[in-house]
Prior knowledge:
Helix content: 25-40%
Number of domains: 1
Number of strands: 9
CATH architecture: Alpha-Beta Barrel
Distance between the termini: 31 Å
CATH topology: TIM Barrel
CATH class: Alpha Beta
Number of helices: 12
Largest sheet: 6 strands, parallel
Shape: globular
Amino acid sequence: MSISNDVPSPALLKVLEGAVDLHVHSGPSPFPRRLNHVEASYDAARIGMRALLIKSHHHNTVMDLLAMGSQLADAPTPVYGGVALNSEVGGINPSAVAVAIQMGGRAVWGPTVSAAQHIAAHNHDDGFPTAGANLEEKEVSIWDAGGNVSEDTVRVTQLVAEADIMLTGGHLDAASMKALFATAKENGVRRLLLHHPDFIVNASDDDVEEMLKSGAFVEHELSMYHPDVPAPGFPISRLVDWIDRIGPEHTVIDSDLGQKTNPLPVDGYIYVIQQLLDHGVAEKDIRQMICRNTAFLLGLEETN
Length: 304
């Protein structure tokens, strides 16, 4: 891992301390990563982060963390894992979910790289592998042959509810995600997250409003607002507008960083959160979005 020289001011560090990053892409992974899970824990300590959630599109990350247990035993920032329901784990697979939960998983991500919405968004050469490229990925859907939410999808939501962990919509299309969240709410899931509604997912304002009524939080990623990440390169005013429209009580901000050529996750926090402060977002609202909401979704007690 290359060491960063970015150092937050004391005032910024006060805002950042205790943040929970629910979207860390450290390694191992089939995709190139800038740091591994142990290094991510130590890097997070630069700003006193409370916890990290490691996301892989391809495998159960709880297995990684258990295998790295001796290295993580004295690591400063607690690290958690989960499983994404892509074709590498059998898609919408209750067995894969049960295994992740049994091993201590805190999150189940809906289909990401195997979702039809993702495949359509990346069907050109933008550097993001598509279904069928190298990894033999296949499309995964929550629907059965009759057009209903599948029995396996229902069972996954039941398992998530029983364990009281987080379920996300992954990169599903809005119609699929709304059906997933409605099913999850009906079965008692309390911790729901909608990823980047304006990127890949492309959910409308009405779609977002409907998912908010299911109890979902809306996630925005620091990677999308950092000048050293080429795509999508959104202006910070876009994020400020989202916060104003949805409200900090419904918003989650995390990194979606760790990729080989991108800034370190912590550097994403240092840059983008300072930008939010400079654009008038209140410290208490930022802490709501990076500390309290994220802690709830990860199953941690509330922090100040």
